[in-house]
From TrEMBL:
It comes from the Bacteria. It comes from Streptococcus mutans. This is Uncharacterized protein.
Amino acid sequence: MSLFSWFKKTQAPQNFESGLSLTSQKGDLLNPNSKEVEEAIVSLSNDPEGFVTLSWTSVSGDFSFIQALCFDGSYLIEYRTADLKKGYVYRKPNVPIEETLQFFRSFLENQTLTLDVDWLQVKAY
């Protein structure tokens, strides 16, 4: 099962609870704080098959997420907005840890990201 299939199956808001959720191979946290998000991202560098997903579900059921996977010391970041067509994500490869932490902090604070031209829109699932 691909990571996105897993995410779609486990995180789709059928019986949703609004708010932020942090998901990784170490477990799930509802309404994580900045320190918990940072620790999850930093721990990825020691887990070549690991991932961290920070998702937001609104009271109306809309959801978006940012996800990081670590490869050879850099991160692949994927971001799905609530209004983006189903199955598409924005992707940014080869992101250093400092920038990855900034993206996750921004999403934690604002539940959205400002994207530049380096982000690619791709069909993911």
